[in-house]
Design a protein that fits this description.
By secondary structure, this protein is mostly beta strands. The chain has 2 domains: about 30 residues; about 200 residues, Porin, CATH 2.40.160. Helix content is about 15%, strand content about 55%. It has 1 helix and 13 strands. Strands 1-2-3-6-7-9-10-13 form an 8-stranded antiparallel β-barrel. A two-stranded antiparallel sheet has the order 4-5. Strands 11-12 form a two-stranded antiparallel ribbon. It comes from Bizionia echini.
């Protein structure tokens, strides 16, 4: 008789045990939602690089590429946390294929020439910059504490400091290589915008100052600035 009463008691209370366990699990899930979340992100961008404000007869050829990577810290400024400031640190390399030759004369002074393929054949002529960058952003998004997929528009400025530069020519004049060229601006900065959904985003950069600081070609100052368009990927 006692055994029957024991089994009856266990059978009657068994559903209550599961119900209580479910409530505990559900409560713990609710408590894990972070209402103070931030969108701290690693980023990786691939861009097609263009030159603006080119001197007469200077043109680009081939594919000029840029690679950018780094980390951005997020600082939300409203209760909903869909508006924030972003401050980051990153590295980038940028190449520009064109007909603007950087060379040196007999005394070692830099010279700048515009190449004409009807006079000089060449298979490569480019300059490359390597920079450490500080992106500063105003960020708007449709994110929530529960969703990692959302629409975003990030605008701001990107400040770059030149770590290293080089140029390379290969053609009728032989192979000409230069590095640590003094005429490049140490600081280069511009406006940026990225927009998209989830991981895939379009990226734009418009340089506000010149790539060079004291170069001239055909008695014209070289005030070329960088324009970049491509894709940027944000990874949490």
């Amino acid at each position: 008789m006692k055994n029957n009463l024991f089994y009856l008691l266990v059978f009657a209370t068994w559903p209550l045990c599961f119900a209580q366990e479910g409530e505990i699990v559900q409560d713990s899930l609710v408590q894990e939602v972070d209402t103070k979340y931030r969108e701290d992100q690693f980023y990786l961008a691939v861009t097609y690089n263009l030159l603006g404000n080119k001197p007469d007869q200077v043109s680009q050829s081939g594919f000029s590429s840029g690679f950018h990577l780094g980390f951005i810290r997020d600082f939300p400024v409203n209760k909903r946390r869909n508006i924030a400031f972003g401050v980051g640190l990153g590295l980038s390399s940028n190449s520009f294929n064109q007909n603007f030759l950087i060379t040196k004369d007999e005394t070692g002074n830099l010279e700048y020439l515009v190449l004409d393929k009807s006079d000089i054949n060449y298979s490569k002529n480019k300059f490359t910059t390597y920079m450490v960058e500080v992106p500063l952003q105003l960020r708007w998004r449709t994110s929530t504490a529960e969703s990692y997929k959302f629409w975003r528009i990030y605008t701001g400025v990107n400040i770059g400091y030149l770590l290293y530069n080089s140029s390379k020519f290969r053609g009728d004049l032989g192979t000409i290589k230069n590095s640590k060229i003094d005429s490049f601006n140490d600081f280069q900065y511009g406006l940026t915008m990225s927009a998209g959904y989830n991981t895939w985003n379009i990226y734009f950069y418009y340089g506000l100052n010149s790539i060079f600081n004291n170069a001239t070609v055909n008695n014209q100052p070289v005030d070329m600035n960088a324009l970049k368009v491509g894709l940027i990927f944000y990874i949490l």
